[in-house]
Design goal:
- The chain contains no helices and 8 strands.
- By secondary structure, the protein is mostly beta strands.
- Strands 1, 2, 3, 4, 5, 6, 7 and 8 form an 8-stranded antiparallel sheet that branches.
- Strand 5 and strand 6 form a beta hairpin.
Length: 141
């Protein structure tokens, strides 16, 4: 299985609801848990990751700080449109520790784009350190 979200695998952050020069959204997909995207307050916050091509995956690993409620939507279109929800979850508070949440799908999910909507947080700001989408592209299936 590949990490389809990684920039070195062809993943790309195509939209983020906020951005900081010192903590840009591209940090989410660099594979380094010490770098992160930092929200700029107010909820919801969201970002969209473009996968290398139409892909199938069965797991997303999400590492962050202070995220409380998150939704994951997907689109299998050639543009980031017509999303539908595949997961809603409340994450437990870990104080200042890194939150690591595995979202497992019983059946593989097909998508070209994955949208993450942070509906609320345990603080005014949240950080997303890494997102890993475990699966395979149609080229590697």
């Amino acid at each position: 299985m590949l990490d389809l979200a990684l920039s070195e695998s062809g993943g790309e952050v195509v939209l983020a609801s906020s951005s900081s020069e010192s903590h840009p959204p591209e940090n989410i997909i660099d594979g380094d848990t010490t770098t992160f995207w930092l929200s700029t307050g107010l909820y919801p916050q969201e970002f969209i990751i473009s996968l290398p091509s139409l892909a199938e995956f069965n797991q997303i690993i999400f590492r962050c700080h202070s995220v409380k409620n998150i939704a994951i939507d997907i689109s299998n279109k050639s543009e980031p449109v017509e999303f539908h929800n595949v997961m809603d979850k409340e994450l437990g508070s870990t104080d200042s520790q890194l939150q690591e949440e595995e979202f497992n799908f019983q059946n593989p999910v097909s998508a070209s784009y994955v949208k993450f909507i942070i509906k609320s947080g345990y603080d005014h700001f949240v950080s997303v350190n890494t997102v890993s989408v475990q699966g395979s592209t149609s080229r590697s299936m």
